[in-house]
Amino acid sequence: MPRSPRRPRAVSTALLVLLALVSASVGANAAPVRVVVSVLPLKTFVERVGGDRVQVDVMVPPGRSPATYDPSPRQVATLVDADLYVRVGVPFEAAWMRRFQGANPALSVLDLRDGINLRPLPAHHHAAHGELASQAPHAEAGSADEAMDSHLWTSPRLVRVMARHIAERLAELDPSHAKDYAANQRAFDAELAALDRWLTERLANLDDRRFLVFHPAWGYFAADYRLEQVPIEHEGKAPGARRLAALVDQARDAGIRVVFVQPQFDRRAAEQLAKAIGGKVVVIDPLSADYIANMRRVAVALVAADRHAGDGPGSVRRP
């Protein structure tokens, strides 16, 4: 009896189904995209977009400042096997990026500053007529060699832009999971939009829209919510006696009673100033990995400071 031609087709179909299942299994278990970022908030953003498809290492560990940090040889070695480096322009990167790319010429680099209007860092010089030096909203950049502010992530609105760029780059490196990255990015974007609405409402009615801060890390945040940060440090250094005295006089006149510091910097000058104005030092950390909760904490601290401003003897709130 002639052999039925149907059996080979059935076997071939079964084989194709098996190969498809094996291929899908291999794709699902493929090695994650290895990413290195400069600072902790960026690690959070990449993990929110990448989910379990990314493995993220961070250069600047908790408690260290990106202004003075030098990566260890072990950290540089991690770049050899990395697929992507995500940078934002923090100070150590200017000196190290060439070495990073030398360690891995095939390394993809995503610069989150691309497409964003950068703000200049405050000059920290004494303003005319005894006014406090501050970084007001919508400051315009000056000369081409002027130092630019790299703390983009303090603006939830800019983080929404950065998250889109992260999703796009991950999709380029790992196209089989592009839909996953897009879905994760949309979910994260919804949380960031809700955070922005909450911050806008919470900070809308502050009486005094200025806040003293040792290191000027909050320029983009201040611009988003119509605030002004008043830096204590002068040209990256703790203030001298004359500047500290001028800050005390101006803070008293403005009714400012709280000085914000970040844990990566020496707080002695801030404590001196707080003591002189009868106020207190409050720690707010722009490098916290718990991004959304941290931004809410900053707003709560600003509202609390505003409520207590001008309560001390001799304090007068400006009209």
What key phrases describe this protein's structure?
alpha/beta; four-stranded parallel sheet; 2 domains; globular; 45% helix; Rossmann fold; 8 strands; disordered C terminus; 319 residues
Stretches where pLDDT is under 50 for at least 5 consecutive residues are 21-26, 124-145, 313-319
User: Can you count the beta strands?
Assistant: 8
What is the terminal-to-terminal distance?
105 Å
CATH topology heading of the largest domain = Rossmann fold
Run of helices and strands: HEHEHEHEHHEHEHEHEH
Which superfamily, in CATH terms, is the homologous superfamily of the largest domain?
Nitrogenase molybdenum iron protein domain
Please compute the radius of gyration using only Cα atoms.
25 Å
| CATH architectural name of the largest domain | 3-Layer(aba) Sandwich
User: Mean of residue pLDDT?
Assistant: 82
Record the strand order, biggest sheet: 2-1-3-4
| Structural shape | globular
- Estimate percent helicity: 40-55%
CATH class of the largest domain: Alpha Beta
- Total separate domains: 2
By DSSP (H or I, 4+ residues per run), the number of helices equals 10
**DSSP strand content:** 5-15%
Please provide a written account of the structure.
The chain has 319 residues and is an alpha/beta fold. It folds into two domains: 130 residues, Nitrogenase molybdenum iron protein domain (Rossmann fold); 143 residues, Rossmann fold (3-Layer(aba) Sandwich). 45% of the residues lie in helices and 11% in strands. The chain contains ten helices and eight strands. The chain has a four-stranded parallel sheet, with helices on one face. Helix 2 links the parallel strand 1 and strand 2. Helix 2 crosses helix 5 and helix 5 runs antiparallel to helix 6. The longest helix is centred in the middle third of the chain and has 26 residues. The C terminus is likely disordered.
